[in-house]
Amino acid sequence: MNNNLFPQNKTDILTHILRLSTILLVIGMSTLYSIGGARAAGFAFTNYELGNTPGVSCPNTLANCYNFAAEPAIRADSAGNFYSSSENGLSGGTDAWKSIDAGLHYISLASPNSASAAGTQFSPAGGDTDLAVASAMNGNGVYNDYVVRLALTNVYVSTSTDGGSTWLLNPTGASVPGDDRPWIAAEGAGKVCVSYHSITATNDIFVTCSTDAGMTFAQTGNAFDANHLWLASFQNEIGNLAIDPANHNIYQSLSGIASATETTCLNCGLHAVWLAVSTDGGLTFTDHAVYVNSNTSVSYGHQFVNVSVDLAGNIYVVFTDDHNLYYSFSTDHGTSWSAPSQINQSPSATAIMPWSVAGGAGKLDVVWYGTSYYDGVKTPDNYPSSAAWYVYFAQNLQATTAGSLFSQQAATPVIHNGGVCESGVSCTGNRDLYDDFGVAASPTTGLASIVYSDDQYSNTPTHPAGPNCTPSRTNTGYCDSTNIATQTSGTGIFP
Length: 495
What we know:
- This protein has a single domain, classed as Neuraminidase.
- The protein is built from one helix and 30 strands.
- The chain has one helix at about 10-20, and strands at about 45-50, 55-60, 70-75, 80-85, 95-100, 105-110, 125-135, 145-150, 155-160, 170, 180-185, 190-200, 205-210, 220, 235-245, 250-255, 270-280, 285-290, 305-310, 315-320, 325-330, 340, 350-360, 365-370, 390-395, 405-410, 415, 440, 450-455, 480-490.
- A hairpin with a 5-residue loop joins strand 12 and strand 13.
């Protein structure tokens, strides 16, 4: 457990209020404005490692709560159950877990990959996992669960209609061949949509939807409208997919270039953040610019732009420039956007790989991997071994109010030291944290559960070392595991 509180005294608070009352909000050539500092945090978290044997409940006293998975995802259903998945890599299969006690324990489920369900841990799939839960119950009074993952150039979707006890595998979850980086979202009792890059075309982003709980995917739409087809041509980085169950709008996040004139620019970064909005169930999309930085060398293509939607239909997009983390919000279904505000504050001088979850109106939780190291020169890939990384958690209960502040604190012990490579399969440095992780919040308690990667040797009752993880192999892939940090006190974001 790591509370790592950052209290403020009355003088600090009064000074802060005065600063907020007079601040002039300006966007410059290369910087986004930020407002104030983090509020004092008062959250507590319990941390533990998950297991990979079906039926095992973690944590326990049997020292069998270890796994070798990374790059996890997490969601919560309306009953307050948490579901999580994590990958063992291409051909390695996917692990899955469920919590029915607000994230205090997770039970290892049978793998969503049919070939690895018997424990062989081999499957054609196992990369780039993501997870979704239905917003309405099926005919059996259960919320369907969906896991998507990559299988070389195809997308596999597995559906559970019985709370994760069994899975039905659909190995053709993408209607366009040659795919990469799938995301998944669901609404109602049986609608589920998957988005992915088409790597055999020109990096288009396709959204394909099923209305029969993932049995067939008969509808496919392009996230780029006729006025923004230039965002393809390998000039974008896909973000996650979200659906608002209240109005059925589908939202696809991404970063990219800012205009058609930049398609031949050799030095332009992905300095624009975009949201593709569908109001017709995924048939067509309209692309809206969330934010465009006038400094074309800045890039928000660092895994990954993230979108979430609260119960009132407000949309939040979070994104990082590989140093600071920002968010913008929309109260009109993605048509217009607030100017970006910085989320991370000291001691998180660097913030990467963000994920968010929205709850009641204006309530937002955000997590990221953060370190106090920043020298203004090195990218995270080249950070020295002295850079200690934590999972940071921030919360804003007035996130649709300009100038509102986040409470922030570390939710974990140190999870990694040194460089963090964000170049995907082209990485040459340390990629133990892979490309993303996640947070969900229980609609029944409002409290969060975070799933994250950890490559530290500890061998404690709540974080036992796997057979190949030794003290000399700490901070290497041999010690990679998927862990949980569940919020046990502090404010929640529901209702």
